[in-house]
Amino acid sequence: MDTHFIILLGCVLAVLLIATLAAQLLKRRAPPGDLTIQNLTARINAWWVMVAVIALAFAFGTAGVVILFALCSFAALREFLTLTNTRAADHWALVAAVFIVLPLQYVAVGMGWYGFYSILIPVYAFLFMPILSALRGQSENFLIRVSEAQWALMIAVFCVSHVPALLSLNIPGYEGKNLFLIFFLIVVVQSSDVLQYVWGKLIGRRKIAPNLSPSKTLEGLVGGVLSASVLGAALFWITPFTIMQAFGLSLVITLMGFFGGLVMSAIKRDRGVKDWGHLIAGHGGFIDRLDSVIFSAPIFFHIVRFYWDVH
Amino acid sequence: MIAARAAAALIVGFARAITAVRGIWQGVAPVPGQRIYFANHNSHGDFVLVWTVLPRALRRRTRPVAGADYWLTSRLKSFIGRDVFNAVLIDRNPDTRAADPVTQMSNALTAGDSLILFPEGTRNTGDQRLLPFKSGLFHLAAQNPDIDMVPVWIENLNRVMPKGAHVPIPLICTVTFGAPIRLEGDDKATFLRRAEAALTALAPIEKA
């Protein structure tokens, strides 16, 4: 277990080191003040920080991972709510969402209480938040306000919390190794994002949804998803899956990640913003970096739970 | 003194945790120099946000202008207003006040400090973007013609903490600093209109 972690951490650091060196080389060739290179450098630096934070959380085990993703949810919820149409009448519903539902969800995830965390938001929060809003008696845009607040919780809290929830799966012969599932999910989905970008830049021609995201191309999608899935297959030895299963699951989560990015772009377009936030230099906000993980996490969780978990 | 410093760090940290506030320096740079920052006013936390995004060196010499009738009504409020933020506290009631507010503000400027003030005079809790400015800004400009007046738009704080709410909801706020204006021989009404326009120009376009 520990040797596996050291090997994987070594690989991640090697990739980052190569990326950093490559960016330095490009910087020397490019004209000074080139914006693309500046953004690339900022992105790579942010990756160093993100890897350090994730490694630190992993070192603290379940509690560390649960707290890390709870903080990510908080930041994502803050970004999402900023773009919604909520009114003063929704104040108590939103206070409850942030300060009661979010902590409860993560406590339940930390306890591994599947029966509670899988229904807290879609059943209880979704029914009680509109009740709190309705009590204030403002009907204008009611359905819009309620739906937006609910979807904010769904995206920023419910979906994100399925990453640490992977720790509570009970897979025979895989006891004590569940952190690798999180590693697998994050590495495959995030490298798919990077590889889609690279393939798109190299051979991208046919745009998939020019109105939503002009940089997404069919060539980038196919190249990125396939190469990230090959990477996922190569990581089979840290998972409970066979090579083919690891490849298939990677295909599913990278496709979900792609569509997640597309959906989140549509929301940004609708609200007229370029990024969800500004907290991660070069990447934008937390949702900008997490969007693909957000959509793939619950699906990955449930497939693994259905076929591998004893419950 | 140490208590005030610690309280300031705590308040700024809390403001950051809830609002992830970001300063956008659109018309001026965050460099040292004496200024009068004038901002829209929706919440008691407005000057905290402006203060939070100022660089540390500027913060120490920047004093908010606030109503004594609010900030001296309890020991906690007067600790925050007077000791933590070193506010220039003015009496907004013309019948009871001992000192002229514009003189008080000018004294602070003469001492070398910068000011944060809210020319609407009171919190705007309605649907209009901005309430009409009080004339204090004009008199201040007339008495201190060599000091830049910087418009500052605070976005979203009214949603974080609507009137009557005691628990904030976390939303991202921005504080946008525009190009400075000065009194260029215009009369009171013209100057106030110009100042209002400079401030509303910084507000994001409202979506239907």
The largest sheet of chain B, given as strand count, sense and whether it forms a barrel, is: 7 strands, mixed
Sheet/helix structural class of chain B: alpha/beta
Q: What would you call the quaternary organization? A: heterodimer
Q: Tell me the number of helical segments of chain B per DSSP (H or I, 4 or more residues long).
A: 9
Largest sheet of chain A: none
Describe, in short, the structure shown.
The complex is a heterodimer of chains A (311) and B (208). By secondary structure, chain A is mainly α.
Task: Explain how this protein is built.
The complex is a heterodimer of chains A (311) and B (208). Chain A is globular. Chain A has twelve helices and no strands. With 311 residues, chain A is mostly helical. Chain A has helices at residues 2-29, 35-59, 61-82, 91-111, 114-117, 120-135, 142-159, 162-165, 179-203, 218-234, 243-271, 286-307. In chain A, α7 (142-159) packs across α12. With 208 residues, chain B is α/β, with parallel strands linked by helices. Helices cover 38% and strands 16% of the residues of chain B. Chain B has helices at 2-19, 46-53, 56-59, 68-71, 75-84, 101-110, 136-143, 157-160, 188-200, and strands at residues 22-25, 35-39, 62-67, 88-90, 114-117, 148-155, 174-177. In chain B, strands 1-7-6-2-5-3-4 form a seven-stranded mixed beta sheet, with helices on both faces. In chain B, α6 (101-110) runs parallel beside α7 (136-143). Chain B is globular, with a radius of gyration of 16 Å. Chain B starts with a helix and ends in an 8-residue tail after the last helix.
